[in-house]
């Protein structure tokens, strides 16, 4: 029956090549036209809302070049999509200012513990390194220094200090913090340590998770309690003058 229909069609349209009357080897796929207003490609997520631009991020952190600022802003927007409570600019001001200080303007995702002078060691770690002779033991010795400063406290074992030193753009520190963040992302802690220090997406997630989930700082940010936030992030007002510079810049461009 089907053959008869095909022969009938061929006889009525002899100008068409035979290929037009053969069975399709692949199914016909419905076409969606991308020029229609509001078109979104099938099986693709909705466009990510642009909370911050590369130009704005570069204004806050002048150390970034344009290409890096654009990349980081795009990455930050992807992460912020997971945290709607952080999309309010009144909250972003505080969070970006704190992360900019902790990460040296988003240029490092891992705490550096290599010191080349005893004077600097004595100045940075006066509670742990008190003499010139002691300082000399930790020159260019990051593993030993990390274990000295962070080992055997806040949930770390004696030899955990360097391993669980600061990481992500918010410098997550100590084993319990890393383990909690790893669980939040469905990772084992070893993978979390790796991604937090190498992947920009996870480095920004560390910022958002720390600010919103781990330390519950959103309410403080909404009330502009910047000093309180600094104390909760840094444990003191260390670097507060620099943090305030970033805070003012953020308020200038994120309105």
Give a brief outline of the structure.
Helix content is 52%, strand content 0%. The chain is built from 13 helices and no strands.
Provide a descriptive summary of the structure in words.
The model is unreliable at 27-34 (pLDDT under 50). Helices cover 52% and strands 0% of the residues. The chain has helices spanning 2-12, 54-60, 66-80, 89-102, 118-124, 132-137, 142-150, 175-184, 189-198, 200-214, 218-222, 226-234, 240-253. It is mainly α and 255 residues long. The longest helix is centred in the first third of the chain and has 15 residues, at 66-80.
Chart the SSEs and their pairings.
Layout: H1 2-12, H2 54-60, H3 66-80, H4 89-102, H5 118-124, H6 132-137, H7 142-150, H8 175-184, H9 189-198, H10 200-214, H11 218-222, H12 226-234, H13 240-253
Helix pairs in contact: 2-3, 2-13, 3-10, 4-13, 8-9, 8-10, 9-10
**Average pLDDT number:** 89
One letter per element, helices H and strands E, the order comes to HHHHHHHHHHHHH
What general form does the structure show? elongated
Which stretches are poorly predicted, pLDDT < 50 over at least 5 residues? Answer: 27-34
Distance between the termini: 71 Å
Largest sheet: none
DSSP strand (E) fraction? Answer: under 5%
Radius of gyration: 28 Å
The structure class reads: mainly alpha
- Given the structure, what is the number of helices? 13
Q: What percent of the residues sit in helical stretches (DSSP H or I)?
A: 40-55%
Number of strands: 0
